[in-house]
Task: inverse folding
């Protein structure tokens, strides 16, 4: 049996969401658990997977088993009209077998997003990603205002999850507040997962 890990699952078109995923993974490992970075393939207009079977670079594609066996989940997507991107939704829509068995119930989860404009749907995108996780019975972990960067940020950052303002040309890199919140979110998911696992082990003993 593999060591417990947090699955950092994302779709990224231009790299900003992928960079957020990397920072969240840093936070996960600072929280004492392994981070497993995974992505999903793009989809064609008829909603079928359209990317190569193996990505040319970056994280490999997520499998159902990656999701089934995780101790917690961080789910990320760029904003598409205030919603998650189609490739990520296509993947999530295919997880009904996990829902039927309750495989994800009781596990912590968090969400993150990157947008081109500052008020371009960050919060609604985060909320849209939370909905299927609630249906799976996952325990949502946000960002509390005890994180100083949440009140100091002039870019992204919400109590619903980490966010980033990439700019209309996608060239704006994550600033120090956005980066800090990504790491804080990853650490919070890992810490929560560890506490839940410790509680479950204590109940068994």
Result:
């Amino acid at each position: 049996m593999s060591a417990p890990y947090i699955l950092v699952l994302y779709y990224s078109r231009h790299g900003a969401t992928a960079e957020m995923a990397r920072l969240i993974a840093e936070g996960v490992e600072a929280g004492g658990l392994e981070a497993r970075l995974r992505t999903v393939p793009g989809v064609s207009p008829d909603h079928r997977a359209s990317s190569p079977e193996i990505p040319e670079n970056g994280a490999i594609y997520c499998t159902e088993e990656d999701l089934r066996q995780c101790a917690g989940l961080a789910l990320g997507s760029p904003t598409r009209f205030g919603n998650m991107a189609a490739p990520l939704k296509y993947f999530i829509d295919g997880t009904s077998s996990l829902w039927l068995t309750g495989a994800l119930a009781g596990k912590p989860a968090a969400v993150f997003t990157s947008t081109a404009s500052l008020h371009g749907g960050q919060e609604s995108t985060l909320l849209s990603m939370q909905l299927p996780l609630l249906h799976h019975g996952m325990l949502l972990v946000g960002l509390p205002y005890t994180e100083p960067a949440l009140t100091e940020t002039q870019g992204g950052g919400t109590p619903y999850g980490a966010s980033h303002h990439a700019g209309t040309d996608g060239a704006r890199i994550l600033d120090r507040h956005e980066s800090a919140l990504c790491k804080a979110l990853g650490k919070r998911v890992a810490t929560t997962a560890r506490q839940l696992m410790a509680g479950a082990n204590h109940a068994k003993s």
